Amino acid sequence: MRNADCEIRGANSPLIAGLRLRHTAWAYPSASMLTGKMPVPPGKGCLPAGVPRLRDEGAVPAHEHKLRHAHSALRTPRSAFGFTMLEILLVLALIAMLTSVMVVGGRRMFAEETPTPEEVFWQACRSAQELAAISDRDVTLRFDEKEKKLLWTNGTSGGEAAFATTGREVGLQFLPASKNSSSLILLGGQAVEVGEGLPRVKFYPDGTCTAFRALFRIGAASRSIAIDPWTCAPVLEKKEAQ
């Protein structure tokens, strides 16, 4: 029995022919039916008069498929790995730069937050002077060599300030205001004063203090600061004439 659709005659309109062929085994709804271009598989079915035989637009010949596959194989490494070598090198350079900035910034921050022994000493002197003025009582200040900290008290209240641990030996000694040449010895090319020091110094309610010198020893280096008894500030050293 012949296909009923094959007996259609005078179907001059491709659109009407496409709608009438919707029940055939090889036809399927697609956009090509609406445009009038009916893809017909070769060797199957028949076409009404006036309907051209067209190749399916979705079909790709074997040689074209091979060319597309070869072209995709020649693409840049981005499609295979996600990043090019240049982008990876740039990211590594940025990571190295940020790491160096963080290391340098961390060292500076730590150095700024760690007070020097002299800064700790002046902090203790100001605190002792303020306590003497507020309490209207004498305040004594001494250095604990074992604990590496300064302690001040007026008998009922007080405070303390510890030296930061830097891995170097730190020491502080209170000496009389006048230097004694007989107590100087040469250590490491520097004249270092030795002998009995002052166990403690006093700060008075009127803002004055004991006349003394603070001798700092940090590692192999030493430095002496004279304290003015009237202002409790460092005495300015006179520069020798050239």
Describe the structure.
The chain is an alpha+beta fold and 242 residues long. It is built from six helices and nine strands, in the order H-H-H-H-H-H-E-E-E-E-E-E-E-E-E. The strands form three sheets. It has a four-stranded antiparallel beta sheet with strand order 3-2-1-7, covered by helices on one side. The chain is elongated. The model is unreliable at 1-11 and 21-28 (pLDDT under 50).
Which characteristics define this entry?
alpha+beta, minor pseudopilin epsh fold, 4-stranded antiparallel β-sheet, 3-stranded antiparallel β-sheet, 6 helices
CATH overall fold name of the largest domain: minor pseudopilin epsh fold
Order of helices and strands: HHHHHHEEEEEEEEE
What gap, in angstroms, lies between the N and C termini? Answer: 131 Å
Number of domains: 3
Number of helices: 6
Indicate the radius of gyration in whole angstroms. Answer: 49 Å
**Total beta-strand segments:** 9
CATH class of the largest domain: Alpha Beta
The portion of residues assigned to helices is: 25-40%
The assigned CATH architecture of the largest domain is 3-Layer(bab) Sandwich
Largest beta sheet, briefly? 4 strands, antiparallel
Please report which band the strand proportion falls in: under 5%, 5-15%, 15-25%, 25-35%, 35-45% or over 45%: 15-25%
Average residue-wise pLDDT: 72
The helix-and-strand class reads alpha+beta
Shape: elongated
Low-confidence stretches: 1-11, 21-28
Order of strands in the sheet with most strands: 3-2-1-7
